[in-house]
């Protein structure tokens, strides 16, 4: 990981503490995360209108720069930008100049020179977006749409919004994160968000082979047994199992994993009766979760998707405002 | 085929008989088809303006969901949606979540949760769009852009608009459909439309191997000889020959097919002198049709393309209105 | 080459001498090129605004038709069109109807029938856009985004804008074009533009194997030695080296080429102290140019990119105006 604890705050925020890039939740305080959730809440209403548009990014150019393909995440960012009235450019990096031997840095300088206002970036390398944000021209906002195993902060924030909508608060909540924590940038961001927002207890439930070594240092309790870990929790967050992991020695088999860590109706009964069940999607039914649970009354999986657009609209509009404010301040000094 | 005669009407129409999905022409009456043609006619004028926009779908999100790729059809739907002022999301399903093992049903639920208002869907499986329309949230419209061998209703309606523009009426018209009827969803929809709109006689002209078994039950006369079939017709609709069929035993060779069923200037002379010639495109010149005919004075092939945008604008705006009306009615009850 | 000296003027201009297509710089006079530069200059300001939009092409449909893929050029045209408020359709021709055996001509007729107003076309065949412009319906503008080895006129004009911004004039300027002139449509268009705009001296610097036979007839001085060629020049334009050329016998090796023709800090010293360094991108660092030069104070490479959007906006809006004016004039006669 190339990002230190201290650095991100500086680079993500204006001198007044406004968001200007959105790279990681590290270094962002509870008031700012709450502001993101409140702003997103106001955009939920926009999505329910017949005219789903607000003019906050009108005439702005947003470039979706996906070095790892992801139709789902890219689509939600594209829709979020369009509902903010931005012009959107989708760049498939496999077919672009980088394949002609151009460096990442040159590609970005070029896109910047096209007067782009915001880059939404997914990259397989941890810290790539941080590197880019450090180099980018003032006025241009960088949004992290997932970097390596490091962070996926918009996913974590849409999860927080979903929890807040259903539970009304974070204080006193017991939250279990179940599955492949080791390879999950989502889990890292969730743990950070839950700690910052004041959840009472964060549990990670996984076989030892799928847990990072220092996981307790992140502020979690570790459980190797699903039933024990679920006892009395308010929120269950299932992680996606990367099927590629099966090939290594980390996991016995899908069937074996499901038997031990898959969320069935029977296992769900160990949690509080009003516990909510979350999953970032796409779901592997019968591997991480039983269909009866995914489609059941405690599942809030589709709310997460709806909240994804609203949270991305919030983060994009806040970062753009921060850039504008900083530029205006810079112009005065 | 999973769609019965009776079912489609119910699912496609509101209680008042307004269009709310557009899946098939089965079950739609002459007044509704005429309304589609009249609405499309009004959009022809929009396409001729320098500002080719109407605000009917402003702020709406239209998702083009093509499980079979088709640049041509997808482009006309994309342009139609943009001219209605909608935001458009094009999804290439090969690279999307389904390749990560997600079910069609989960993919759709997710897209729906993104507050999409309309899905334009092409799928290789007959009835897929019907299945989706039955499952989708109220308020979301489904438009069929071609399903398996079943239906391609917007193509049939743009053909009807083209016929009406040139002939002024359907009553008394003799229409010949020539070529691979067996594999053609277009032909199925055309036969249905022509019957509903009151054409006098519908002929299908093809070798026996390229005709469905029950084709006469659809309300057609069968001809195995092109010259005989063309005698005194007002409209000739050539079908596209799928070259893949050649490999099976269904057809002797392109050359042989052209000799027997290709539309040459000489054969065209058997039809009425003012007969019009249609083709859904893309044309295989010298396989289905001689260039002198495709480019000749009786060809209305490019009118069909222009009408394609107008008909798609009509169907999309009508279905959205129907969804809005139903939602409003539901809200009152 | 299918385009003669005389023909392009006729086809590109209205009777009043307004631009209506933009295919080549051949036949365009100094006043028109200056008008393009002045118009582009006014759009530079639009790119610097927070709302980067002007309504000049509102409701117009612009189709990007790339028969050769180029993310960079296509993106700048897409952004230019969107900032002019047009609706944009990107067509990947590899996956489109042409792969089903449709001819180029039929593909275009179809797109035209969709009421498109402008085609931005890149094609590997020299003269393809000229052929299309000759065949297209009146009212539809054709913009050349690069054809074979023939021309890339928007690239040349953005280079001219960059030179004018930094040097204030063309009179008295000595300009060196360095590298693979033989395969470069960019160089051909640059030489034409520099001659028309009144540059004092145009030098081409390359090994004999990378120079066209008739290059002096275009109005250039030839140098085989970089140091000699750079002496006292005001502007240095580096060309992109096509790595594919290495495989033929035209070039010894990248290393050898760089040694002789690569622009290093040391070699740059032969030019005037205030000489500017240009490159169309993407850059091969260490092949055509040393990083210290590409990133150095004399480099204006990123200005070129910014100017690329402005020049494309200028050409697109001028050609559309010309088409409208011609149509209006035609309607009166």
Notes on the protein architecture:
3 copies of one chain form a homotrimer. With 333 residues, chain A is an alpha/beta fold. Chain A folds into 2 domains: 7-152 and 306-332, Rossmann fold, CATH 3.40.50.1370; 154-300, Aspartate/ornithine carbamoyltransferase (Rossmann fold, 3-Layer(aba) Sandwich). Chain A is 41% helix and 14% strand. Chain A contains 12 helices and 9 strands. Chain A has helices at residues 7-12, 30-48, 71-83, 104-113, 128-135, 153-167, 185-197, 226-230, 254-261, 265-268, 291-294, 301-332; strands spanning 61-66, 87-92, 118-123, 141-147, 174-178, 201-205, 221-223, 235-238, 276-278. Chain A has a 5-stranded parallel β-sheet with strand order 7-6-5-8-9. In chain A, strands 2-1-3-4 form a 4-stranded parallel β-sheet, with helices on both faces. In chain A, α2 crosses α12, α3 (71-83) packs across α12 and α6 crosses α7 (185-197). Chain A is globular. Chain A starts with 6 loop residues before the first helix and ends with a helix. Chains in contact: A-B, A-C, B-C. The interface between A and B is medium-sized, with 28 and 26 residues.
């Amino acid at each position: 990981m190339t990002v230190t604890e201290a650095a991100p705050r500086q680079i993500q925020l204006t001198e007044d503490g406004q968001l200007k890039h959105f790279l990681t939740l590290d270094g962002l305080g509870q008031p700012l995360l709450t502001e993101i959730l409140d702003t997103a809440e106001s955009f939920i209403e926009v999505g329910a209108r017949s005219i789903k548009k607000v003019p906050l990014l009108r005439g702005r150019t947003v470039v979706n720069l996906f070095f790892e393909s992801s139709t789902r995440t890219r689509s939600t960012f594209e829709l979020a930008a369009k509902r903010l009235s931005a012009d959107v450019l989708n760049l498939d990096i496999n077919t672009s100049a980088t394949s002609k031997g151009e460096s990442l840095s040159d590609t970005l300088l070029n896109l910047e020179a096209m007067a782009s206002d915001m880059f939404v970036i997914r990259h397989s390398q941890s810290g790539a977006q941080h590197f880019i944000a450090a180099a980018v021209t003032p006025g241009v906002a960088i949004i992290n749409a997932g970097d390596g195993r490091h962070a996926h902060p918009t996913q974590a924030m849409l999860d927080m919004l979903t929890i807040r909508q259903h539970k009304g608060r974070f204080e006193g909540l017991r939250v279990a994160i179940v599955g492949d924590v080791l390879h999950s940038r989502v889990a890292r961001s969730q743990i950070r968000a839950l700690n910052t927002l004041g959840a009472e207890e964060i549990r990670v439930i996984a076989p030892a082979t799928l847990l990072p070594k220092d996981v307790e240092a992140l502020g979690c309790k570790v459980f190797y047994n699903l039933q024990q870990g679920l006892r009395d929790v308010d929120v269950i967050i299932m992680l996606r199992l990367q099927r590629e992991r099966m090939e290594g020695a980390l996991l016995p088999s899908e069937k074996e994993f499901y038997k031990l860590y898959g969320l069935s109706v029977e296992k769900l009964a160990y949690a509080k009766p009003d516990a909510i069940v979350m999953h970032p999607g796409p779901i592997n039914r019968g591997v991480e979760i039983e269909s009866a649970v995914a489609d059941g009354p405690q599942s809030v999986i589709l709310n997460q998707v709806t909240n994804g657009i609203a949270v991305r609209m919030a983060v994009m509009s806040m970062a753009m405002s921060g850039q504008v404010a900083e530029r205006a301040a810079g112009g005065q000094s």
